[in-house]
Specification:
10% strand; Rossmann fold; single chain; ABC transporter transmembrane region fold; alpha/beta; 12 strands; 3 domains
Amino acid sequence: MLKVFSFLKSYKKPIYIALFLMLVELFVELWHPLLMAKIIDDGILKNDLSVVLTWGGIMLGLSFVGFAAGIINSFYAAHVSQGFGYDVRKSLFDKVQSFSFANLNRFPTSSLITRLTNDVTQLQGLVFMGLRIMARAPLLVIGGVVMALIVNWQLALILVVTMPLMFLFMVWLMGRGVTLFRIVQDKLDSVNSVMRENLSGMRLIKAFLRKSHEQNRFAKSSTELKDQTIKALRLIELTMPVLLLVMNISILVILWFGSFQVTANNANIGEIVALVNYATRIMFAFSVFSFLLMNLARAKASSTRIVEVLEADVDLVDGAGSSLQEELIRGHVRFDDVSFQYPDTKENVLMNISFEARSGETVALLGATGSGKTSLFQLIPRLYDVSKGTVTLDGEDIRKFKLTSLRNNIGFVPQEARLFTGTVRENICWGKEGASMEEIIEAAKAAQIHETIVKLPNQYETIIGQKGVNLSGGQKQRVSIARALIRKPKILLLDDSTSALDLQTEQKILEAIRDLSCTTLIITQKISTVMAADKILLLEDGRIVAEGEHDKLLQTSELYQKIYDSQQLEEVASHG
């Protein structure tokens, strides 16, 4: 937990103020029983009203001091806990932004969401209680025992014997609680995962009538969370009855032996009342422990999960070389004997890939599903690093460049057209921050989406729902293409991103892309698209099995000829 609580360093001053005020409140509470004893022995038993009024007034004044200290302490505790939570959450988010795809494979999205929200909230609560009551509780126990020894050391020995036993019980409980609440947080990850998948796939679930199946999945995951939480809370709740039993027995023993001392004139009634008051306060402090233990156990489990993210090694780091100078980039991409396997897997998905895409060329990648086309694309902007071989840009290994500089010169349109909640304009601007309206419209026209946008209710200011739910598949693809084209990239990667478009629209987009004079790599299943490419790469099982122009491959590659013939037959059938 030390790693997480290092974020508190910037809040030293308010922490010290909160702790000082907590000590003032504690001082008031520890002195009350002594003053009560004095009022009883010197005032009530001796019928001296002036003593009662004097010391009663002092008690009242101290109570107001303690009240004010408690209120101000709460203010500072809230300030520190909220600031701490903000800093941890920001640091977590920044760390996640630096993650490679390999890191994201280790931490599922649902787990990261839980860590950024629920786990941070657990730690915020612990910090607040630490400054408000957690530090006060053990000090109240220690101070109560010390003051009890001062009042009557013989009777106070009962508390001295009882405290270590209760402390050992609490330590054992803490160890068990941390383990159980770690499992609870993992089960919460599972529930979040089911909910996320369900909400994102709601249309598909309704279309396939999978409502009952999804309800059963959620019920199973939710039941596991409930059962594990009950198990953890049952253990923690055991503390309260045990502590009350032990402390009440201690109070009875104090009263029993105290009665003998009063009878023998070895103790005053006020002393017995003071001892009972201290025992009651100690009992209250230990009862607070039962509540704190649950939060401490949960916070300990949460801090471990947060530290896992903060200390995760990011395998993709900036190269030691200088940033790319945009005006000097030619966009010449070369793969030299590249092999690649995903992290935590043993088999290569790409094997001995060698080809080059010269500046301004269009290279089309064709192949069956699972042949490695998308994996190859992900190596160019360094979403993953190669396992063997090199990928070069203008003759320089891309691992030597700074990531931001490299990716700023690449326009990437993924296979799944993913849009974000916001306006159409904001989604296109996502490709180039601060782009002018003229640039946005130019990119939209090149992507053949401008005419569609101007027909929307608020044109470019029309709000797009989450993941673009209010747009068709083809419209989402064209907005995604506009988002990439607005960058005027030196390298453009189109990962089957025209699959939902008709041939005429696709050809217009490709013509607009040629005017950009950028190096274009396009994954497609359409022969009509690859025919216009300068070079075609035919992939099968992670290897390039054929390379060349359309006419050449039609004569030399049996596989390419089969693909061509099958699409020709489909076209004839569709027109027939």
